[in-house]
Design brief:
It contains 25 helices and two strands. By secondary structure, it is an all-alpha fold. The protein starts with 9 loop residues before the first helix and ends with a helix.
Length: 468
Amino acid sequence: MPTENPRLRDTAYEVALVALATNPSYHKDLLSTVKSWPSVIYSALPVISAIEPQLNTSSMTDSLKEALAELYVIAGQYDKAFSFYADLMKPELFDFIDKYNLQDSIHEKVVQLMMLDCKRAVPLLIQHRDLISPQEVVKQLLNADVKCDCRYFLHLYLHSLFEVNPHAGKDFHDIQVELYADYDPKMLLPFLHSSQHYTLEKAYEICTKKELLKEQVFILGRMGNSKQALAVIINKLGDIKEAVEFVTMQNDDELWEELIKQCIDKPEMVGMLLEHTVGNLDPLYIVNKVPNGLEIPRLRDRLVKIITDYRTETSLRHGCNDILKADCVNLLIKYYKEARHGISLGSEEDEPQIKNSDTHDSSKSLGLRNMEVKSKTRGGGRCCICFDPFSIQNVSVIAFFCCHAYHTTCLTDSSYTSNNSKKEIKSNSRETYDDYNDYMDEEEEEEDEEAELGAPRMRCILCTTAAS
């Protein structure tokens, strides 16, 4: 039939397509015709209406399904076309989903998507888990009737989901333990470390059945059966280094005794125990526990190594102590030199003269310049309480190491007022707040020291206020 030059009436093409659809022997011809004919020369709806009654009959073939899907695409019914493409396992299905934004239509086609391409299906399902929940995905995969390893698909999905969000599939962590044991045992131990949502007893039963020893040790440790876990390490794994690490992590003295008890009758393990417990146990204590007459392989070499390691450790400690003492002495000398520095209390008018008189000495000018900055920012030649220059009052001056200076009378009056206010605050806080007991104890200790000295300790008002 011509499709142009001349172009027939729409009904002519529609009648031809319906005729092909009614005979199963022509379904392949129908599919090729639908793909080759321009969609503008006929209406797809009449043809769809003629094919739909055959959906659940024996005359329905894969070619007719694909032709119907093509007609749905022409009619703009992309979700119905997706359903047929999924059943037919078309390789271009994922591109079809992206092209027409059909993520909402994947609810009932999880198994088909996984069978078609699990590497693309898993990220798709996880990315759109707000549209199709993990519960729905797991349900479809567990109840699948098709002949495929849906448990493996479930393992891939739950593993990727756990990596994206460890808590999203927490209801299925018991299943995941079994899936890891079946398909990826190496990933089971990291999963057991990371998850808190699996049943310990069930996980231990699975690991025992699969003879996963390190996983058994970890689960027994979490269950509190440390001695049983230690027995698995020594008797089944035979790894003394791991046994020592396990006991060290448990921080239990009784477990050390249990470790020695289980190894003491095994000569090779006693030797390995001597090698790996340096720094945790006294080797002499282990040696004294060894029964008389027990031959330990390479005992001399191991004892020499223990003594050498001990000497090295002792030498390092002495070296560190010497460095620490030298640092302390150097810092004390530096502190003493800093404390001996003079403090400039001159007025602001005298500062330029000080600078000009010492320009010939670069080191002195640098020190004065630093002191000028401190004086300008911390009071200069004025009292930090009354702000009068020191020169206009014939009163003694007290200067602190922080470069703040005060008239003696101003500081004494301020200290007396501050002590009285502290006593009032302390009495009120004792009645109101119990959380300040430690702070009050420190204050009482300072008051006792002042009482012993016979006079209140002078403090810089500005620094004390800022610190409090």
